[in-house]
Design a protein that fits this description.
Elements: H1 20-35, H2 40-55
């Protein structure tokens, strides 16, 4: 019988891997979307998508990261 291997991942919606700056950015962006008339849920989803697009996701350590020339 085949053995099933499960990969342990962060639960969806877990924002613990984001920096305080990223969290503040998301709150500010979310407020802007809500001001335009979007629902809270949609505004939050779009805000985090925007933060991910701008920063590439959660925390990134500076040490050991490849720098582009």
């Amino acid at each position: 019988m085949a053995e099933i291997t499960r990969k342990v991942t962060m639960p969806q919606g877990d924002k613990s891997s984001y920096t305080n700056k990223q969290k503040r950015q998301a709150e500010h962006i979310e407020a802007g979307y809500e001001k335009r008339g979007l629902t809270t849920k949609t505004a939050e989803a779009r805000a985090w998508a925007t933060v991910n697009k701008l920063s590439g996701g959660g925390k990134k350590s500076g040490s050991g990261r490849k720098k582009s020339p």
